[in-house]
């Protein structure tokens, strides 16, 4: 869910964008000469501090109460998940579960829990601990914004013995397994620690992961130390024991130029760098660049309850007026991929045919569409109809060159657009209330079920920024949630893409390439299709 940048993940099981586990990329990146920071001349060493820059600070490290993708990202280093996606193959694999089975009716999912795993406070991890954790997430008093939504259709859980965890579902829930890969949001929590710290648990997290919480300096950093007892690494990790660095520090640096200066000086070892800034780090002997693409997309949400945007022809004209390639160049220095429908190409269910039937940039076609709908240009070149001017506001929460480009592109076809800059919290509030016209948005997830939140009529006032109320879309989204057969499920999402484009419910824009820049004093960083950070095999060259 939204998991990035402007953090729609705060509402969606989105995007995080930094920790989304689904992998996919149309082409493999070109590694630097120091492939993945690997060293052929020395063996891995223990010791040192690994420092990662992050642009935003979490609201809490209680994984079940965080609204932010940063909460998932940071707490994920201290946690673990029942399942995981292999970053190279995108194969779903057991992790803290040794195996799982699904009943024929799809309503019972049974996990065999791994033995020998302990929380940082010494409490053993067993099925009862998972059961208690997820029951806490589902409890109304917890008010879990993301973890609870990642447990669709869960009626109850049972743990008949230490190694058996059973999910009892009201109806089949295809997104459940992908959602159980989040090491932050979906990690088991120590109930003993929650009892001990109470409301302060979010500042004193206790998990089962390779890193143990040490301190949180508000506005500066979160520090973690190596879990010496850790020997239950992810299945794709080469290092099966405790991490090699002594310490892991997540340093919060909001300003982009300050972050780049810290990376250049060696004050931080790893940072996510924007496409417009990546050139100087490529083919630089001091750094390794991990390049990938996430299942996250930028779009323009359109409030279909707006008196002008109710007209599908106006929505189609707006789609035709947008030059996606120009926006990619302006916002990302060309480091992005155009998107033509509601599902990005790296996400399950993507239909390549959308690249053919999706809207292509055509100013003339856009003008014809408005003319046919009765909108005529006035002396100022702005369209009018029935005494009303075709004027819309574009809500934004960050300043990007593409915002002004969108404004000028729409003006070219006779639509007057006024920019409206708002803070992130106000942005979400206006979308929920439907008090906006157009909005620069972003969303993504490990599963296309994200579209249920983005487009189902039951989500109006909750998420569903476009306030879409379409019976065909609702029915398809409900089927997509319940259908377990992969091919049948793909067909459902193919139909969803077609209807969304036909009705022009949104303006799909682009998917950004992701760049993680690693100082070469850090060894063992591995190229993978989504530039996912895996610190299991990293070590500091002394």
Automatic annotation (TrEMBL):
Gene Ontology molecular functions: peptide transmembrane transporter activity
GO cellular component assignments: ATP-binding cassette (ABC) transporter complex; periplasmic space
Lineage: superkingdom: Bacteria
Signal peptide: 1-28
Residues annotated as domain Solute-binding protein family: 91-451
InterPro entries associated with the record: Peptide/Ni-bd (IPR030678), SBP_5 (IPR039424), SBP_5_dom (IPR000914)
Membrane-traversing stretches: none
UniProt keyword terms in alphabetical order: Signal
Stretches assigned to coiled coil: none
GO biological process: peptide transport
A Pfam family hit: SBP_bac_5
The name this protein goes by in its record: ABC transporter substrate-binding protein
